[in-house]
From TrEMBL:
The keyword Membrane applies. This is Uncharacterized protein. Keywords: Membrane, Transmembrane, Transmembrane helix. It comes from the Bacteria. The chain crosses the membrane at residues 82-104, 116-138. The keyword Membrane applies. Residues 226-254 are annotated as: Disordered.
């Protein structure tokens, strides 16, 4: 299908390769309806990382995210295209007509002309019906990645309420300051927290953890061993690293 589209578009390259060459840059105007908007965001989620999609979705207003959530509630599964639906029904109808023609050919055994006509019609209708039905099934399986992204997008735009599966994961994250600061900012500036905010809070916590991995191991070990003792330094990156260390035996080390 991609090769056919490339041929009609005047290019020998596939659309996927062309999009990768420009890093999937395809600017679009504001979509006219929530249905079209949800479909476009689903396609963007397929071609770019979840963090990239989350950053773009987080910039939408609360009203736009609410419209996307309402669309997902209205239609929780990705609707099939008109061509796929029409191909399935057309295939079923043609196969049924082929079976009817085969039955009529058996009913006119004594009439050779009528029998031959109904046999040819039955074979032609059965072949056409199987081709239409098979093409529709192949088209449905080829769009399975879009079906998965459709459901993931529903998680992104869904409000973090008692029905959302990421609710407790988000609660565990906001105990950490990077995620807690992001939560306060979103509640003050945009509105309700959504699944996309959980994704960004998770990435913030990961980035903070990666930053901790760059600290000198000696300083981390000293802070870990003195944590909770009187006068012991807290285990955080704000503690300055000592520059002069006296090396001695046993308790002479300071």
């Amino acid at each position: 299908m991609s090769l056919v589209n490339s041929f009609f578009d005047g290019s020998l390259l596939g659309s996927e390769r062309l999009m990768r060459a420009r890093e999937f840059y395809a600017p679009e105007r504001t979509p006219p309806s929530p249905q079209v908007a949800f479909e476009r965001w689903t396609q963007r989620l397929v071609v770019q990382s979840e963090l990239g999609t989350a950053r773009e979705l987080a910039g939408l207003s609360d009203a736009e995210l609410e419209a996307l959530q309402s669309e997902f509630i209205r239609c929780p599964t990705r609707p099939r295209s008109a061509y796929v639906r029409g191909g399935i029904w057309a295939g079923v109808a043609l196969v049924a007509l082929g079976c009817l023609s085969a039955g009529l050919s058996q009913a006119n055994i004594g009439n050779d002309g009528a029998t031959g006509f109904f046999e040819v019609a039955a074979i032609g209708l059965l072949i056409a019906g199987l081709v239409a039905f098979g093409w529709s099934l192949v088209a449905s399986f080829s769009a399975s990645h879009l079906d998965l992204s459709y459901g993931t997008l529903g998680l992104y735009v869904g409000e973090l309420d008692e029905q959302h599966p990421w609710l407790y994961k988000a609660v565990n994250l906001v105990r950490l300051e990077p995620a807690a600061g992001y939560r306060r900012r979103v509640l003050a500036e945009r509105g309700r927290l959504r699944g996309v905010d959980y994704v960004l809070m998770r990435e913030l916590v990961k980035a903070h953890d990666q930053l901790e991995q760059t600290r000198p191991a000696r300083l981390v070990a000293e802070q870990l061993q003195t944590l909770g003792t009187p006068g012991g330094p807290p285990l955080d990156s704000a503690t300055p690293e000592p520059r002069l260390v006296q090396v001695g035996a046993g308790g002479a080390r300071s």
